[in-house]
Amino acid sequence: MAHPMIADEVLRILTAAGLTRSDTTRKLIACQNEIPPYLKQIIKQLLTKRESKVNKESGEIKQDTFSKLIQDVHEKESKSMCVRLFKDAADKFTQVPVFPQALARFYYIILTDYVNATYWAKEAIKRDQKNSFFRDTLGQVYKNQLKKEIATSARDILRIGKLALEAFEDEIKIAEQEQEPGMQEDKVINTSTIFNNRGLFGYIEVADIIFNKLTCVNTEWANILTQETQTHSLIHPQMSEEHKSLLMTLRQRLEVRFEFFQTYLTYSVQAINKKDPSYIWPSIKECYQKFRKKECQTAWQILQEGMATTFAGLLSTLEDKSFSELELITEQWRKMYEDDADADAAQNYILAKIILSQTSSASTVPIKELQEILLQFWEKQKYDSSPEFYLLAILLFWPDGAQPPGNPNAPDLKKCVQDMRHSYKRTYQKHLRSRYLVPLFFFGKEGLQRLVYRSRLNQTDLNWLTNGDESVEIEGLQRIRGEVRNHMIFVLRENNEMEVSAHNPASVYKSGLVSFYLGFTIRGPVAFNIRYVVSAVGFVDR
User: Fold this and answer.
1) 41: how many CB neighbours lie within 10 A of its CB?
2) What is the pTM of this model?
3) Is residue 1 pLDDT above 50, yes or no?
4) Parallel, antiparallel, or unpaired: how do β-strands 496-502 and 524-532 relate?
5) Residue 423's Cα: distance from chain center in Å?
6) Where are the domains of the chain?
7) pLDDT digits (tens, 9 = 90+) for 457-492
8) Which CATH architecture has domain 451-532?
9) How far apart are CA 211 and CA 221, in angstroms?
10) How far apart are the first and last CA of the chain?
11) What are the pLDDT digits (tens) for 330-349?
């Protein structure tokens, strides 16, 4: 019914007459005639639609475990009646996967019956093999079985753990093949408006449980899982080759998933006012630290300990690292750059120096020095590089204006912006689709100090930048000039112009001169807080 008060009153009358919620629902499901689509949808919503609530303070979204109907039947009638409802629907609608999926969830969450949960989770997958979200349920069944059942032997832990890891691996594989609607390719088997990262997180959770369980059996398992040793009496000849392979590769696979989330959570959030669940990153970091080798001897091991082996990892160090820790990280990237002389090492060394300059003006190096490092690799990298490499080129060459005199290899910023967008599409669009790309830096003062990392701005300033009116002035940032034409916004610099994205497309409602604050996401430069100006008098891009 459209109005909840009317629905509640009708429900009260039916209950007083001795007709329970489950009676009414079973009568709907048992309809002998062909069930019309609208009624089928109603039954689906009654049994499977879970309400979501947004925490106003944190912005986190919390979803109910089951639908309101199932929660009421569970509370006022019985668990067995909930099972009966799900089974009736699964038997009636033999092609619909959500009913066996919901039944599997009820079995493992409420009844801790993992045998039946596994059966129905597999039935849901059988009904839709192209959807990664149904595969997640099977992984969750095995994960919870591994977590809650008491296992006294390493063999039992590895047996269930292997099933859970394989289920999440299958989910990851299908999720990687899914594309957003309208972006289908010949080999795409399904579409989804969001990228399903549950398999990646589930894999990390299982790895963490395996570590905890095995080290409870024998603390020496820690040395095997961290690969401090590859020969140990615990790895006995009777152990299956599959379990040995799992032990030898788990740490490397975990590191790949850790780096994914480090990038995913550094570059984006669910939405501008919706954060990712607060437990995700701490859980991932805790698991990663367990599997890391304890002795840090090489530069790379020191960077692993500091969780600064990637561009995104370096950016996140500004949130929780001391100045001395940042100095140590920068020194390791200097060694890596001087030893290897490759583009990735150079790129991360440059970023480390920029980050260090954010914490102390005494650590600032001449911007020309960093430009020269990047230009060593520009000719080879400029046509097909990562978004991070293009971002550095834009950050380094934008503040000082035109190209260095007499240097024909210096970046063409207009083309650099275009190439960065194409690179983002190739590299990250699939994983970050539908998410809000956070600004990593803003345009500020002189030299490297013109690069203002987002954590240096307070939340009020960030809110003004994204939602404030056009009269706002942000201390430490600098407005630059631009022009709107045909609902596109261009930065005007001397005789050049570059198109940038508008943070709020509604702000470019007419043609004319504008000023704005310039931010940089992993996709490219973005104009924030766009203000239309009457004339260009006194309007200087400094």
Assistant:
1) 12
2) 0.90
3) no
4) parallel
5) 18
6) 1-128, 129-140+148-294, 302-443, 451-532
7) 888 888 889 887 778 888 889 898 999 999 999 998
8) Beta Barrel (2.40)
9) 8
10) 61
11) 999 999 999 988 899 999 99
